Each structure stands twice: as structure tokens, then as C-alpha cells.
Description:
Layout lengths: L5 E4 L3 H16 L4 E3 L6 E5 L3 H11 L9 E2 L3 H7 L5 H10 L4 E6 L6 H4 L4 E5 L4 H10 L3 E2 L14 H8 L5 E4 L10 E4 L5 E5 L5 H7 L5 E3 L1 E2 L2 E2 L14 E5 L4 H8 L9 E5 L11 E4 L4 H17 L4 E5 L8 H11 L1
Parallel strand pairs: 1-8, 2-8, 4-6, 5-9, 10-11, 14-17, 15-16, 15-17
Antiparallel strand pairs: 2-3, 3-7, 4-7, 5-6, 9-10, 12-13
The structure holds threonylcarbamoyladenylate and magnesium ion.
Amino acid sequence: MILDTQYLKTDSEEAFNEVLALASACLREGNVVAVPTETVYGLASNALEPASVEKIFTAKNRPAENPIIVHVASESMACDCVAEWTKSAAILAKAFWPGPITLVLPRAKSIPDIVTAGGDTVGVRWPSHRFMQELIKACRFPLAAPSANLSNHVSPTSAEHVVSQMDGRIEMIIDGGTTEVGIESTVVDLTNEKVRVLRPGMISVEAISAVLSDYKVEIDSDKGILKSPGQLKRHYAPNARLLVLNWADEEDLEGQIAYSRTPHDRVCVIAHTQIVPGTRFGRVSVLPREAKAYARALYDELCRCDKEGAELICVEAPPDDQDWDGINDRLARAGG
Ligand code: TXA
Ligand code: MG
């Protein structure tokens, strides 16, 4: 079924309030709305209504075994979604909420099976984006929301990215500007004594360990591949093939990719320190050297490469440093 998707902007205070009323009404009717968050755009519906959540899976072509994060707008709302609010959860919420971290805890009975993929746990997050916070408050129910991309595509960091993937598939798209963080939230499992980071993000393991000094915190990754249910090895992927490489200069890079026989005008290079002149390739882009700014720009750059018909994207390997864990994880998956 093709829907007549409404596209709404929130760029003035008046528009913000009008759109808030329209979006909350749409969600109350059981529909799906694409919403801005500080990480990436999400596809939201009423987390307490299985029939509404079902529509998210249809819109995304998402496999049913992948659980969905539940978004709240206060700590007490988070407590209502879980069976146990652990001490570790209280500490992390105090340190990082509202913000880009998702806490996995034993689920409350009120959270339907479709949200947790039948599992005993639920991921909860209090996002910091103003529109998302106001929307949850206006709805007075938590919002289930995965990233607003088709399954296995790059997560959208702007409303235009959402439109390109979701137009005709959902009722409404809210434009809340480009997202501030740029990659998905850090997902932390708090259901065991050991605290496990299931998906690294811009809140680093170091930052989590610093506030959870009484706990052992570890990254649950197997060579960068996570064990979160439904986590596919290849994920967050652009259409083009993606390689993460180090190079000395343009000639060196050319030598490294010669075997692929990709026409040079179909090669996009994404550098941040070893900037090549680009005389031999389709496009060379330069991302910031600082992790936060790099994360903010990365998905937009990958989308641009796809749009320009890239066959091969060569990304200069970022530093192997905690601040870059989330970025390195996404690049490993995009190329896997
Ligand atoms: O930043 C974000 O987290 C964005 C915005 C929209 O909030 N959401 C997002 O959702 O990235 P999604 O569905 O694209 O990715 C959520 C990840 C999935 O890999 C899922 O397997 C994992 O979180 N996850 C969700 N609930 C879980 C649970 N109960 N246990 C373990 N992993 C869970
Ligand atoms: Mg996703």
C-alpha cells in the first residue's frame, strides 16, 4: 500500500507547536511517524500497542527477531517500561540522560512481545532532541523507534534522507534539522553483573566505566561484530562496496584498489588526514579530524557517495581509540 506521506517542518516556534499536535494525534491513531532524535532519525509508534509497532516492521522490512528501543521522556517513564531499575541504570541515567545511550534491562509486562522480539529484556532511551522529548510528553506513552532507514541501509541523519527511503511507506515525516550526534546510541546491557556494551557509540566505554567505577564494564564485540539480537554482520551499509584503508599518497591508494578494477570515476575517497588531490578518482571528501564532528558528518557523506553512483568507497582508517569506537564499529559493518 502506498501512503500519502505528510512532510512537516518545525523551523519556527509556531510550526513546532502545530506539528507537535499533528504528530501526537497521528501516533495516538496508531500510525508511524518519522521523528528527529539527536543520534539519527527514528520511525516511531506507540510502544504499548502491538498493532502500531507491527507497522514499523512493515515500513522498514525489518526482521521480527530484532528488538526495538523504547523512547521515554523521564526516568519515571523508563521505570514503567522495566521490571527492575538497577543501581547501574540509575547511575547511567543520571550521568547521560537525556542523551545517546540505551539501557537494556528486564522488561515490564506492559511492553509487548513485538517490541522485545519475544525476549525478556527491553532497551530504553531518553533522547535529548527537543521535539522528540515534547512529542513523548504530549503522547503520554513511550515511543518504540528504530532508525528510520530501510533494513540494512544507512541510518538517516536528515529529513531528506528519511524522505528518500520512507516516502509512501509511513504517514508522516517530521523535519527537525540534521542530527547532532550522527551515529546511533551506545547500547548497554545491564541485566548481568558485568556491564556489557552491545553497540558502541559516542558515549564511550571509558565514559561509562568512569561513572560505573564499582562495576566491570566490557565491550561485547567479536572483532567489532556485536551479539545484540538481530545484529547482522553487514549493517548500516551504503550500496557501494566500502573499504577501510591506510595510504601514503594517491599512487599508493590507487595500487591498493587496482585489483578491484573499479572505473576510477566510480571511486569515492573519504579522508580525514591523508588528503589526496583527487586527480585520479571520482570524488575526494575530507571529514573532520575530531571524532564528534566526524560522526556527525559520516552517514551524510556515505549517502552522497551512493547518490553519485559510487561503486567503491575508500575510507581512511580512523584512529584505534576509544573516542572512535562507535565510528570504527559502523565502518566495520558497512564494509563487512
Ligand atoms: O540512536 C538510536 O539508538 C536510534 C534512535 C532512533 O534512537 N535507534 C536505533 O534503533 O538505532 P535500531 O533499532 O536501528 O537499533 C537498535 C539496536 C539494534 O541493534 C537492536 O538489536 C538493539 O539495539 N536492541 C534493542 N533492544 C534490545 C534488547 N532488548 N537487547 C539487546 N539489544 C537490543
Ligand atoms: Mg538501525
